[in-house]
Structures are given as C-alpha cells and as structure tokens.
C-alpha cells in the first residue's frame, strides 16, 4: 500500500514535469529571423524547421530579414584555409529599415558575427526592435549580437561552447552559464552552439504553447530533444 502510493506520487511528479501548460494571454504570431552575411546554416534552418512544424498547428508568420531586404549569403566573410566554397544564398524580402510587424526575433550565429562592420546593422536593429518584442531568441554566437545590443546585461545567458571566450567578452555584465543547452531569462532565450537552436526553439514552443504542441512538433521532425540543462559541450571545451 505504502509502496504503491510512493510510486503513484513519483509518476505524478514525472508527468507534471513534462506537462508544461501554455502561457496565458495573446500568443506571438509574427516571427522574424535576422540574417547577416556569414550566418550558420543550421542556426537558421533548424529553427525554421521547428517554426514550420508549429505553423501546421498554430497560426504564425515567419519572415526573413536582411540588411538590403533582398537576399543574404552564408558564405564566410573570410574563407577558411581549405578555400572551400560552401556558400548558399537565400531570398529575404524584408530589410532592417522596413521590417514587418514582429512579436519574436531569432538571431542566428555564424562566422559572420566576427565581422564587426558586417553585423553592425543587425546589432542596431536588435537594439531598436527589442523593446517592442514579446520574445527574442539567439542561437550559438548570435548571443554576441544580443550582448553587443546591451539586452543581455544583468541576465543569465549561454552561447556556443567552442566560441565561449570570444562571445563572452562582449557581455561583462551578463551572467554567462556554460552548463546549459539553452537558457530563458525573462523574455530572452539564448542557446548553445548550432544544433542547440532547435532544442531552444522547441523549449520556447513548449513554454508558450505547452507540452502537447511542442511534442507534436518534435515528433513531426523526428528530433531527439535535449533539455535546457542537458549539455556536454561545456565540459568537452574545458569550461567546467
Ligand atoms: C495542435 O496540437 C495539439 C497537440 O497535439 C492538438 O491537440 C491540436 O488538435 C492541434 N491543433 C491543430 C489545429 O492541428
Ligand atoms: C561560390 O558558389 C556560389 C554559389 O554556388 C557562387 O555564386 C560563387 O560565385 C562561388 N564563389 C567562388 C569564389 O567560386
């Protein structure tokens, strides 16, 4: 009798932990992705896949933005020693000067974040648009853009573990945490490197729309989701 009630309590506890209820109030509908020359492909296309899945269940709009409002290229601004050409260009349609109405902005990382002149326009855009957003999400070294826009000051955040020293220099007043796959602090979500963007976005979907919707998206894309605190790369790169 006693054992079964312990088991029941334990299982109820487990179920509660994976049954996040939707946030009350109006849901975000308009999601922008801010591109700049030299963004990382999976930082953009991974979350775009999760947004696509969300769009089969909820009414949302996804917009790609770039400085010129026409296109954006993933080509690194400095080629690596191999001299490979692994570039691709996507059409955007919205510029930072004339953005669509946005409730959410996703900021990817990539080698282009190291090109100060190249990311200056997106840093300005983030600084200007953040006060009117419901949520902002960075992937990978995109956290350096949020830090340079000043919006991580006083907040907990994470970023790509291999690029940790480079990114964290931009946020002296940020409470950087290298033991995280992704972190939410108030309305700011930051994720670890590259593939972590998908886990962060699925975590964000769960936070906003609840577990059933997030699980539906996750299963639809056959993604093995990793939780917010489940990260092995900080250790791999000697950060803890
Ligand atoms: C959205 O997903 C939830 C959870 O799986 C489901 O109950 C609901 O019917 C779905 N709504 C639509 C419009 O597909
Ligand atoms: C790299 O590939 C892109 C697209 O395939 C092409 O437009 C560009 O000219 C190529 N660059 C070089 C240096 O070959």
TrEMBL record:
Keyword Iron attached: no
Keyword ATP-binding listed: no
Signal sequence segment: 1-17
Alphabetized UniProt keyword annotations: Signal
Record-linked Gene3D superfamilies: 3.40.50.880
InterPro entries associated with the record: Class_I_gatase-like, DJ-1/PfpI, INH-QAR
Domain (DJ-1/PfpI) ranges: 32-197
Coiled-coil spans in chain: none
PANTHER family, alphabetized: ARAC-FAMILY TRANSCRIPTIONAL REGULATOR, THIJ_PFPI FAMILY PROTEIN (AFU_ORTHOLOGUE AFUA_5G14240)
Name of the molecule in the record: DJ-1/PfpI domain-containing protein
């Amino acid at each position: 009798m006693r054992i079964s009630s312990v088991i029941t309590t334990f299982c109820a506890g487990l179920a509660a932990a994976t049954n996040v209820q939707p946030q009350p109030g109006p849901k975000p509908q308009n999601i922008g992705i801010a591109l700049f020359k030299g963004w990382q492909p999976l930082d953009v296309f991974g979350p775009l896949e999760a947004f696509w899945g969300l769009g089969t269940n909820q009414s949302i709009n996804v917009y790609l933005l770039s400085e010129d409002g026409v296109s954006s290229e993933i080509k690194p601004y400095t080629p690596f020693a191999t001299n490979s050409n692994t570039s691709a260009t996507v059409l955007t349609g919205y510029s930072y000067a004339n953005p669509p109405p946005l409730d959410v902005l996703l900021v990817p990382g990539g080698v282009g974040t190291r090109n100060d002149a190249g990311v200056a326009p997106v840093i300005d855009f983030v600084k200007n648009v953040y006060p009117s957003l419901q949520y902002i999400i960075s992937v990978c070294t995109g956290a350096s853009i949020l830090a340079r826009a000043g919006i991580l000051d006083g907040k907990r955040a994470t970023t790509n573990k291999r690029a940790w020293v480079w990114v964290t220099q931009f946020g002296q007043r940020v409470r950087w945490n290298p033991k995280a796959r992704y972190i939410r602090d108030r309305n700011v979500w930051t994720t670890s490197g590259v593939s972590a963007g998908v886990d962060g976005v699925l975590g964000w979907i769960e936070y906003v729309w609840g577990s059933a919707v997030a699980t539906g998206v996750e299963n639809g894309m056959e993604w093995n989701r990793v939780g917010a605190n489940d990260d092995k790369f900080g250790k791999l790169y000697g950060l803890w």
